[in-house]
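Fig. S4 source data, part A: sequence.
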Amino acid sequence: MDDEFKEGDAAAIELTTQVEGVFKGFEGENQKKVLVDYEGEIKTYEIAEDASGDFDKVKENDNIAFSTKMVDGKEMIETLRLN
């Protein structure tokens, strides 16, 4: 068994999910959370520290494609692109 990678190790493989939704805004201290209408439900995602994308261009009700990843047991936004 290879002990080189441990759970939580940044070098370990991370699974991501890419989905589409409607951007509803930012919230939280320093706008570190994103509100997304996904499948008819408003969901709140924290923005991952290494997130990339169109955060500076997106406006309320824009269609977006975004990916999430699990960080310390929390689903977080990894990428956000205008769609």
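Fig. S4 source data, part B ends here. The mean pLDDT is 86.
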